[in-house]
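Reviewers asked in the last cycle whether our approach scales beyond single polypeptides. To address this, we selected a multi-component target totalling 840 residues and predicted its structure end to end. The input consisted of the following lines:
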Amino acid sequence: MDAEEFRRRGMEMVDYVANYLENIEQRPVYPDVEPGYLRSLIPTEAPLEPDNYDDIIKDVDRVIMPGVTHWHSPYFFAYFPAATSYPALLADMLCGAIGCIGFSWAASPACTELETVMLDWLGKMLNLPEHFIAGTHGHGGGVIQSTASEATLVTLLAARCKAVRRVQASNPEKSEAEILSKLVAYTSEQFCATLGTTASCAFDRITELGPICNKENIWMHIDAAYAGSAFICPEFRPLLNGIEFADSFNFNPHKWLLINFDCSTMWVKKREDLIGAFKMEPLYLKHENQESGKKRFRSLKMWFVFRMYGIQGLQAYIRKHVGLAKEFESLVRADKRFEICAEVIMGLVCFRLKGSNRLNELLLKRITKSREIHLVPCQLSGRFVLRFAICARTTDSRHIQQAWRHITQLTFEILQEPNH
Amino acid sequence: MDAEEFRRRGMEMVDYVANYLENIEQRPVYPDVEPGYLRSLIPTEAPLEPDNYDDIIKDVDRVIMPGVTHWHSPYFFAYFPAATSYPALLADMLCGAIGCIGFSWAASPACTELETVMLDWLGKMLNLPEHFIAGTHGHGGGVIQSTASEATLVTLLAARCKAVRRVQASNPEKSEAEILSKLVAYTSEQFCATLGTTASCAFDRITELGPICNKENIWMHIDAAYAGSAFICPEFRPLLNGIEFADSFNFNPHKWLLINFDCSTMWVKKREDLIGAFKMEPLYLKHENQESGKKRFRSLKMWFVFRMYGIQGLQAYIRKHVGLAKEFESLVRADKRFEICAEVIMGLVCFRLKGSNRLNELLLKRITKSREIHLVPCQLSGRFVLRFAICARTTDSRHIQQAWRHITQLTFEILQEPNH
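The resulting structure, written as structure tokens, was:
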């Protein structure tokens, strides 16, 4: 395929993508396939000679689409949102074309530098303390990771490295292994200090945890994977109070800030803590401006999205989703058969039928089977709870109303059954 | 931006990408910017209201492109290749549109299933032992990771988990901490058993290491990050002999198999070893067919590339690159001022001027400064060596000849200087 054919096929693909997203709500949100469905639909080996491109596209419809859970359907209310937007898709095309691997400044200066500045932009949107902003203070700064788990792992390694050095500074006779065997990480069931847990979007009190960590010289990491995006709105920013005690902080714009996966943003108070933990300099990577990490040009997505929406556009988007969650909450509260199981703060509503776990499991089973809307459950204090998360960019009031009609219809049917 | 505007902007972007790649060799391969160049070119904060899209594209040319190291220029010979191809770019557009997060089967069945089958296709292309092929044997199989480092980390955790369980099975009184403190990982300077090291593309003798690992019950992991792609050619496959002793194996199609970053493929002999190490089942992820890992729909890229090139097309691509390396090797060998520093097996030529490290450092400095070609060095037995890696998809004989003319011209100039 040469540039000329790519031009033609690329334009067809743009059209395919636009059609897919424009008409996505007409597809069943959850696929009707059994595990192993795909293997029998395609050959067992790669072709020796090239296939026809048109056949590949036909196979996307025949093989792939029937097995896709449509995360961007306005009837998708499962897990947490996976962000997407047209500006991010455009930026991703450019990112693919440049195709640099940004593991050092020299490997692609624009990639390293735009990332630092975009993390500053975003940090300022969240009104992070100055020491997290690279362009202001100079000691801290932000970096993109793939996932919140990766950010947490990186933080853990940096914290460990820093603790070892601190102990060694005053006890040079101690071996690294000896120190390591004494280190302790304090976590709850949800791991570290969390703003917006996955199960129910609960918030830890970091203004209480923070001073203890600082006093005891404990590295404090705060994970706000989902909820972090909302802190760009002044009315939600108080939930981030206490951030000034943190050594590091991360959240996922790829969840709720219209930037495609992967884009998990992380800030550290002292860049040197991160760089120190990962320093490794074979000559083929050596450069006076080396930093670590292997990455695509992911900051392009941030740049396109921030500029095409503007801060106000992004704020409006967050507020719309929270508003839709409140709308759903009202519908649930108005129906005496149901109860709300956790305070609705962001775009997640945890609810259940008053009654046994078995009854709620049955309701979810029927919802999943119907494939009209898609939800997943969680467990809160031993109770089986349904999670209704506002996810898609195009979800609107009518989808919420339709989803609730659907849930109550299935509830009605279940409660009619003799052995429910 | 609605679907209609995306159609228009998407087609413009396809055109931009095609133009960029078609004319890439006219750009200096290495950028002429100083660290920090970008910050002053853009605002210090995100705009409150949306910017104009045309301004963003103008800024790509004004702000981004001057700071890009052009990895896909045919004059880029640094590091190792970063794969790209038009079919992969098209697949990536589709991947972005579907935008699923495949952390379990239910989260997107097509994503999980195509990945397993594509890893089988690729495993068969490499003629991997049957126990690595999911569709044949049933106990082993492949999975996509982001990088070889990630694959190695995952393997290390799986191996550790397995070792702990084995010891605990016969010593139930031992605590996990006690066992962990006794575990040993054997590595060389390059970490694990490696086929094609980064510095010089050297090969470990796995037919010697393998039986020792098997006999001593040591998990054997083999990393063939760069060279692995070449094993689809029968003439290079003998370098993989001994793979039957390995518990796990990985290489990066995103380096040399025309599939965009990220796509690091990894196979394990026993899937349960991986799944067991990462099992963690909160209710919101629970599903009878759960596996682990958070991922984009990366297997689409593999599917498009394998089908659009066919196995023969991919083999021809590898052979072309190796041929170009041999061509460069001949040019170096024909010039008595130079020496070849490591056997040229794949697409990498390690060479240097006979003389001091200082002289070679000076030569590389001039090469980098000229920005006509881009190379990085390595250190072999204390000697400063230049690495010439065939990288871009469009690199051809004329680029090799031109690169050599350029190197010898700079050499001539240096050797003329009184204090060289």
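Chain B touches chain A through 118 residues (CB under 8 Å). We regard this as preliminary and will revisit it once experimental data from Aim 1 are available.
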